[in-house]
Amino acid sequence: MRGIRIFSIGSLLVSLVCIIGFIWAYLDQKMPHTAVTTAQIPQTATEKNEMKVVALGDSLTRGYGDASGKGYVGDVIDQLRTHSHSSISLSNLAINGQTSRQLLQQLGQKEVLRQIQQADVILMTIGGNDLNQQGRTINDLNSSHIQEILSSYKDNLSHILQQIRSVNPHATLYFVGLYNPYMDVTDANSISQIVRQWNHETADLIAGYSNTVFVPTFDLFQLHEDQYLYVDHFHPNTKGYQRIADRITPLLIP
Known about the structure:
Ester_Hydrolysis_Enzymes; SGNH_hydro_sf; transmembrane; SGNH hydrolase-type esterase domain-containing protein; SGNH_hydro; five-stranded parallel β-sheet
């Protein structure tokens, strides 16, 4: 009698194991992808714990005149690395002397677009060489001519922003405005008025694009330009670039 009872319990256990195994195999066959691994979760820049910065534009973004060679871009990167635990990479694609038309041409390069496509943050200056015209504008403040170059610049800038957004609609773009480096000349007030109009129309234009921020710099150089300009009296010096970086970085840190 005892042998029959042990045999019955054993048979019951075997049956339970078979049933559980059948259910497990059935679920595995019908729902093989219900378990999501960490590698399958889409990762944002924050989740990846890294930030890619791409810098575009002219000599201001290149850092011309900064004895340290970093410019405002390098200073921003240094400050971000101090305040953030994220890994930060930089591609500075700016070119000395570049105009808005030349930047638009640069965006026709596949490698440049690939870098922009991967960016989390874009830093940009452009327009200073359009307005300055290699020093000719300061000697001829003809309003009709300035309106012509402003109109051409705005048309190029519109195409630049459209091109950037076509490959990367999500990166935050910080556009650095112009300052007046000619505060010590006879026509300083007239030039300041032109630069203010230039900045106003630029800010108004980029306001039509998402994730795009205009960063003013006019006031940073307005009263003490001698302290913050390079020996060419046009580009910022090391202190001038640091002031620009100090204005941008708080916008990048949550």
